[in-house]
Write a structure and sequence with these properties.
With 339 residues, the protein is α+β, with helices and mostly antiparallel strands. It has three domains: 93 residues, no CATH class; 81 residues; 129 residues, Heat Shock Protein 90 (2-Layer Sandwich). The chain contains nine helices and seven strands; from the N terminus they run H-H-E-E-H-H-H-H-E-H-E-E-H-H-E-E. Strands 3-4-5-7-6 form a five-stranded mixed β-sheet, covered by helices on one side. It has a two-stranded antiparallel sheet with strand order 1-2. The longest helix is centred in the middle third of the chain and has 75 residues. It is rod-shaped and about 150 Å long. It starts with a helix and ends in an 8-residue tail after the last strand. The C terminus is likely disordered. It is a multi-pass membrane protein.
Length: 339
């Protein structure tokens, strides 16, 4: 294609030179035509010397013109390649020829339309994924609620009835240690069942503040589990996202305490100090070693991820037979305590 452009430009230039010479001779004919043949330069008749000179000038002018055309064509070709491969246009000089400039503008418009179409497709794809994830989360939540409701209406009620029955039997036979052990096992099963229900069907804040939600959760929990539960919360204005994540972390922590800690005491602290929200959950259970397996458990990772999402940190201190303390600290600026 480049060779064709050069040949085309040279042909036009030579034709233009010959036409110029022809017109000049027609309108300004020499007085003696023989002079063109008789006069010589370097033993070459003047007419041939003139033709050679015109041909050289035409050839050089054609090469110069073809170079400019080639540069403009390559610029547009680069734009088309960028468009085809989905790249941003390379910075190149705008073609000087009007026709090439219009063609480059049209390619640029096509590129902008293509980019907008790509962005719209990406946005639609992201929205579709988010809608699918939201739908899956809703289905999971509904299934968890259904499972929690079934467990509460069947297994939990049966455990309660078995506990009452064993309690009555043990009152008549207080010396039977095996029956007392059975009652204790049933009692522990009830605690674990309540922890499981709390995990499956976590209560939502539903318009309440974090302190109000904690108060309501712990008051209800205190009535259902044999734990010495104490807590301190301070009214504070937090973003809904921070409140929701801290409340979920608290629920996960309490669920872990009920299921694994075998604790007799649970203390919850939620305060605002030095520009940070501090949520601390402490129990006197059996504790655990912060081994790699434990540190990488799903529950702890979930709490860490929730804390990280609101810019906070999670710290766990636990030793065997010395209880566990979990503390989340979330930076919070621009808000003041409402004490």
């Amino acid at each position: 294609m480049t060779a064709k452009i050069v040949l085309h430009a040279v042909s036009i230039s030579l034709f233009s030179a010959l036409m110029t010479l022809g017109l000049y001779v027609i309108f300004f004919p020499p007085e003696e035509w023989g002079m063109l043949w008789n006069v010589t330069i370097l033993d070459v008749p003047f007419i041939f010397f003139l033709l050679i000179q015109l041909l050289l000038i035409g050839f050089l002018w054609g090469v110069i013109q073809s170079g400019g055309m080639k540069k403009q064509v390559l610029s547009i070709e680069q734009q088309v390649d960028d468009l085809r491969q989905g790249r941003t246009f390379s910075k190149a000089a705008q073609p000087q020829t009007a026709e090439f400039s219009r063609l480059a503008d049209k390619v640029s418009d096509l590129q902008r339309m293509w980019n907008e179409q790509v962005k719209m497709n990406q946005r639609l794809a992201s929205e579709k994924v988010e809608q699918q994830e939201q739908k899956i989360q809703e289905m999971v939540s509904l299934e968890r609620q259904r499972l929690a409701r079934d467990l509460h209406d069947s297994v939990s009620q049966q455990l309660f009835a078995a506990s009452m029955l064993m309690s009555a039997i043990n009152e008549t036979e207080p010396e039977n240690r095996q029956l007392q052990m059975v009652e204790k096992m049933i009692h522990q099963s009830q605690v674990e069942m309540r922890a499981l229900l709390l995990h499956l069907r976590p209560a939502a804040l539903k318009g309440k503040t974090l302190s109000e939600g904690i108060d309501e959760l712990l008051v209800e929990l205190k009535q259902k589990v044999p734990l010495d539960i104490s807590w301190k919360t301070e009214p504070m204005e937090l973003e809904r996202g921070i409140e929701d994540h801290l409340f979920r972390i608290l629920q996960e922590s309490i669920s872990n305490t009920l299921r694994h800690a075998e604790a007799s005491m649970l203390n919850v602290l939620c305060i605002l100090r030095d520009g940070a929200v501090i949520l601390r959950v402490t129990d006197d259970g059996k504790g655990f070693e912060l081994s790699e397996d434990k540190a990488g458990s799903y529950g702890l990772n979930n709490m860490r991820e929730r804390a990280a999402e609101v810019g906070g940190t999670l710290k766990i201190v636990s030793l065997p037979d010395q209880g566990t303390r979990l503390e989340i600290k979330v930076p919070f600026e621009g808000k003041e305590e409402l004490t």
